[in-house]
Amino acid sequence: MTQLPLRAQLATALGRTAATLSRVTGRGDGSVIGGRVSLVLEPDLLRKLAHDRKLALVSATNGKTTTTRLITSALSELGDVATNAFGANMPAGHVSALSSAKHAPYGVLEVDEKYLPEVIDTTGAGVICLMNLSRDQMDRAGEIWLLAQKWRRALAGRNTHVIANADDPLVTWGASTAASVTWVSAGQPWKEDSWCCPQCGGPLDRKGMEYVPPGSMGSGAPSGAGENDWACRECTFRRPEPSWILDDDAVIDPRGQRWVLDIQLPGRANRANAAIALATAEVFGLPVERALPRLREVRSVAGRYTTVERDGRHARLLLAKNPAGWLEAFDVLDASLPVILSVNAQGPDGRDTSWLWDVDYRVLRGRPVFVTGERRLDLALRLDVADVPFQLANSFEQALAAQPSGKVDVIANYTAFQQIRSEFGRAV
Ligand SMILES: [Zn+2]
Question: Where would I find the Mur ligase central domain in this sequence (predicted)?
Answer without folding.
Answer: 61-172
